[in-house]
Amino acid sequence: MNALGNMSRKKLTIAGMVVAAIFLFFVNIWSSLGIQSAQLDLTENHLYTLSQGSKEVIKTIDEPIIFRLYYSPSFGEISPPHGNYFKRVRELLEHFSAVSGGKIDLKIINPISFSVEEDEAVKFGIQGVPLDQSGELGYFGMAAINSTDDRKTVPFFNPQREQFLEYDLTRLVYELAEPKKKKIGLITSLLIEADPMLQYKPWPIMEQITQFFEVKPIETEALKIDDDIDVLLIIHPKFLKDNLLYAIDQFVMRGGRLLTFLDPQNETARMTPRAPPGAGSSELKKLFDVWGIEFDENKFVGDRTRAIRVQAPVKGRDVIADYLSWGIYDKRAMNANDIVTGQLTSISLASAGTINLKENSKLKMVPLLQTSKISQRIDAELVRGEINPEAILKQFKSENKSFTIAARFSGMVKSAFPNGPPKPKEDKIKKNSNSDTKKIEKLRPHISEAKTDLNMIVMADTDLLTSRFWLQQQEFFGKKISTPVSNNADFLVNSLENLGGSQALISLRSRGLSVRPFHTIQDIKNNAEDKYRKTEQQLTEKLKDLQGKLQGLGMKSQAKGKVILTSAQQKAFEKFRAEMLNVRKQLRDVQLALRRDIEHLDTKLKIVNIWSMPILIAIVAIVLAIVRRRKYRQLTS
């Protein structure tokens, strides 16, 4: 009977193992076919989760879109990073297709050499990469086509742009699904647009704008803004005439929306040949004074915690110092609750100004970008001539308050032209009275007070739109690949989309920037450098004082020109040497303390990152073992 019982247990054990194996086999197949795209995203910014903005864009698709993904498996074998990136691209495209409900058709094509598929890839503009010395090409790109044969192409999926993958793909879908673009009116004194006469190419920032919007330049003599303008973009307004100011004013009075970039010192304008005096600064004082907004075009703000270290030639010598005029502002400086800046990671600025509400202003200001409290408003003259970062740093004295660099303004405003449109000048009337009369007759009735609340975003910097502050260009097989290094362009496009009423792309635009600087280490470094800088200034003052004393001492010379030191001079030099050695020791102590603080913090971070999880797992295992042992004892007792 016992033998029979033992036999039954053995059979049951074997049968159980067989059933478990079959169960695991079918679970494996089911998971491979049914839930292969399932994932748990525990990253801080949810980098691997399709954003709500992407889903909204995909839902707007009315007609089918075909994704033709061209990929050479041999390319992935030779370059494993590209092979892994292909899996990421394919998974994301499959997710796009699933969310679209079948409106996005994904086709994965292997363009074998000398095949029809390779000819198609070349026709679509897919870039081939040499795989070996035989000249065989590998492909990793995509062409997207809608029902009207509009086509968008990704010539090559570069792993360096992996953090922008979802944005690039969603933008592609948006451009194919939404052919009608919002119209942006552009007023600027900078040469950001193309000029065929001067063979001048547009700034890369204009390419970002024109991808999503139709841009219409506004004439400097305009007395009104056309009704079809959705958002008015004003960049570095300089020397604006009353006609154009009146047009802007009435555009706002009729409920128009403004995005304005001002600057106390635009470095591009300063470096432009034959630039007129004051071309570096810009303002809208006549309008802002009436609306209740304060902007000082003669002051820029320096943030000690966000300054960039530079090397600059000053009077024939290289100076290495933190340049308070340039700064990289991270997430801590941005408004996380506003849709424009909520998901941005970093913005690079140069000679940025500050904005605020006037004392009796009726407007509401929502800051979008602010400095830290270790900041100071500095005279803009220091960045309008020869740049001396060291001199700017030496005069720095924190005002112990945060300053607003970018903000959103809302509320009711009155016209800055209470008496109606500006009257034409007499000399113009004499030259062409009919022309001016017709212009005035075509104007709508003057509005003295806005019909709706003001809707405006102001950024007190224009250099952020220059490519060197947000874009890095690299050569890749003879072609230039541009990679954003900060969210400057994202801030501009986000603002235009928000003011224009479209918010579908905002939530995903900056998801890819995953740079996470060690703020604590940077703060320790800044504190130590402040100590070092103070000690250095003390040493300089001591040297100057000693040199003055030496000049006051009598010097005796021999016939051969050699200098003979008196006893007083000898004592002075000995004193100088002792002070010099003492100060140098202080400098070494500060630098040693800096290294120790950073090494100590680095050790802590390594312990937390490397040992915390194994220790946690070990503790859980020990607790579970103790619990199981107690339960076993209770059952056996």
What structural class do helix, strand and pairing data support? alpha+beta
Our count of helices gives 16
Please give the largest β-sheet. Answer: 7 strands, mixed
Gap between N and C termini: 27 Å
* Beta-strand proportion: 15-25%
* Percentage of residues assigned to helices: 40-55%
Please state the overall shape, judged from the principal axes of the Cα atoms: globular
Mean of pLDDT: 80
What is the radius of gyration computed over CA atoms, rounded to a whole number of angstroms?
33 Å
Secondary structure tally: strands: 23
| Strand order in the sheet with the most strands | 7-6-8-9-19-18-16
Point out poorly predicted stretches: 273-277, 432-441, 553-561
Question: How would you describe this protein?
Answer:
This protein has 637 residues and is of the alpha+beta class. Helices cover 41% and strands 21% of the residues. The protein contains 16 helices and 23 strands. A 7-stranded mixed beta sheet has the order 7-6-8-9-19-18-16, with helices on both faces. Helix 15 runs antiparallel to helix 16.
